[in-house]
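Quick one:
INPUT:
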């Protein structure tokens, strides 16, 4: 379904999920970027970043706006889980904003459980205020899934 790329990352797509170009470029150096294509167009992307010997974090997942709400995001999350298993990880983690209502639901539907909250993560690490669903994004909700 997906393939790994090592250059010419779809930055505009990655920035849909994470508005900090600096942070995106930083974790691309350390992680593996997977893309999903349709008719030679990259319409989905995610990045897996090893965090500890047995765990990997899904640090970015995005679907092109015109393809959203079609099940592609869920397929990408399930693909990321499968890739993590194939690479021998025992845990896959993900973090999302407290205002990311749809993403929180998606991750839990895919078997992730809330493990903690990084208070003020987005207000500390991002220069501009992020607002989603009429809610200021301040805290990062951490989730994990045993593989």
């Amino acid at each position: 379904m997906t393939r790994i790329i090592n250059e010419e990352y779809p930055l505009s797509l990655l920035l849909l999920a994470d508005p900090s170009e600096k942070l995106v470029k930083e974790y691309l150096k350390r992680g593996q970027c997977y893309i999903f294509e349709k008719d030679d167009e990259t319409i989905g992307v995610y990045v897996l970043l090893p965090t500890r010997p047995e765990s990997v974090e899904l640090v970015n997942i995005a679907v092109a706006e015109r393809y959203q709400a079609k099940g592609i995001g869920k397929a990408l999350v399930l693909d990321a889980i499968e890739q993590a298993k194939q690479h021998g990880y025992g845990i896959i983690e993900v973090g999302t904003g407290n205002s990311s209502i749809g993403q929180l639901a998606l991750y839990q539907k895919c078997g992730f459980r809330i493990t903690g909250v990084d208070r003020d993560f987005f207000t500390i690490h991002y220069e501009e205020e992020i607002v989603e669903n009429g809610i200021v994004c301040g805290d990062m909700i951490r989730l994990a899934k045993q593989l």
